[in-house]
Amino acid sequence: MIDSHSHTLYSKHASGSVDELVRASIAAGICILTITDHAPFHVDADNRLLESELDCYFADIEQARMDYEGKIIILQGLEFDYMPGSEAFTCDLLARYPLDFAIGSVHYVEVPGEPMVKVWDLSRLASDAFLDRYFASLEGLFACGLFDAVGHADTLLRGLPEDVFVRRIEPLLALLSRSNMAFELNASGLRKSSLCPLTGKEVQGLWSYPSQSLLPQLIGHDVPFTIGSDTHAPEDAGAGVTELMRELQPLGLGRISYYQRRRRIDVDIETLLPNGTFTIMKQGGALL
After folding, report:
1. What is the CATH number of the domain that holds 75?
2. How many domains does the chain have?
């Protein structure tokens, strides 16, 4: 199993040390784990790494690499917030710390005349004012050239009809393809609540994201895919990853990618499912 999106207590709203996450990941059968705690940012500073903690964060990851060598491959990453105008700050962080993987995600959207919208404010995700700003932010994220993958771009499906989301993102798919960024298949959508389309009430147990109807279009644009549990607790390490691959494979999903030293490595999905023979390929298809 590959899990390219995971969090520890460094993100403040998550639990478990780096060591606890790694041990849980080994127990869950993960062979390649990328730790991607939330990077420092000027918004919501209480729910992410502080700049003063970055050295300790990377030291903990390096210690885990040494402690569990031969048992699991551990890669170091960050999940960056993207908002228009944040590019210079992100560039500075990327220049200071060598990463294996950089996720760019939109969590916060400024809507004129309203309080800032967070993507977990489910009742506010269907307004045209929010959607205009959200997809403008995605366009900027795709165009900036800073990230390896876009994180949970379809998380809006927790509170937005899928046809509305797909119609809004379709004009951006050519740009995403040209960017060479991966689109994240985020398994936390299998665990999180969503709004019931009939009652408008928040419920558990409904598939929200990733978007199944968008997947064939992404494949048609030759967009690569990463996959991650987006775990915020050690007990959720790898949660939903295998189930997600099983569901999406019949829709055409053939490869999963991960990143090492900011270089994409592709893996045949058949080898990631039970009874598969693990084979990885460099970008371009050469066997590694």
Report:
1. 3.20.20.140
2. 1
* Cβ within 8 Å of residue 247, ≥6 positions away: 212
Per-residue pLDDT tens over the stretch 142-196: 999 999 999 999 999 999 999 999 999 999 999 999 999 999 999 999 999 999 8
The pLDDT, as a whole number, for residue 276 is: 52
Domain that holds residue 139: 2-282
The model's pTM: 0.93
Residue 243 lies in a domain: yes
Tokens of 86: 């944040």
